[in-house]
From TrEMBL:
Keywords: Nucleus, Repressor, Transcription, Transcription regulation. This is SAM domain-containing protein. Residues 8-30 have a biased composition (Pro residues). Pfam families: SAM_1. GO terms for biological process: negative regulation of DNA-templated transcription. Residues 58-124 form the SAM domain.
Length: 126
C-alpha cells in the first residue's frame, strides 16, 4: 500500500466545558437603566437598598453602587476595585472569597462581608 494514499484519522472534536448557569432564583434579563425594574429590599440596620431585578444584567457602575450601599463603612472604600477588575453583575454573582482576597486584594473581613451580601442578593433577601 502506498503511504501517500493513507490519510490519518480525523481527531475527535474538542470538548468545551459546560457554560456555568446562574442560580434558578436569578430573575430574567432586564434593562439596567429602566428604573421601573428596581425594587426595595430590607438591609441590616433598618436601611433600604435599591436592587435591580436582573442582577446578572448589572453594569460595572451598578455593581459599584451595590458595594457602596451594601456596607458603606467596610466595602465603600473598595468600590473602585470593581471597575479596575471589570466586575459586572454576572461576574459579581460568580465571586468567591478566595478570589476577592487573591485577585482584588481585600482582607478576609471585607471579603467575607461582601460574600455575605452577594449570597443575600442571590437569595433575594436584600
Amino acid at each position: 500500500m502506498d503511504s501517500a494514499s493513507v490519510t490519518p484519522p480525523t481527531p475527535p472534536p474538542r470538548q468545551h466545558p459546560p457554560t456555568p448557569r446562574l442560580p434558578p432564583s436569578e430573575p430574567g434579563p432586564s434593562s439596567p437603566s429602566d428604573s421601573s425594574q428596581l425594587h426595595h429590599g430590607a438591609r441590616g440596620g433598618g436601611g433600604s437598598l435599591r436592587v435591580p431585578a436582573g442582577t446578572s444584567c448589572w453594569s460595572i457602575e451598578e455593581v459599584m453602587q451595590f458595594v457602596r450601599e451594601a456596607d458603606p463603612a467596610a466595602l465603600a472604600p473598595h468600590a473602585e476595585l470593581f471597575r479596575k477588575h471589570e466586575i459586572d453583575g454576572r461576574a459579581l454573582l460568580l465571586l468567591r472569597s478566595d478570589m476577592i482576597m487573591k485577585y482584588m486584594g481585600l482582607k478576609l473581613g471585607p471579603a467575607l462581608k461582601l460574600c455575605h451580601h452577594i449570597e443575600r442578593l442571590k437569595q433575594g433577601r436584600l
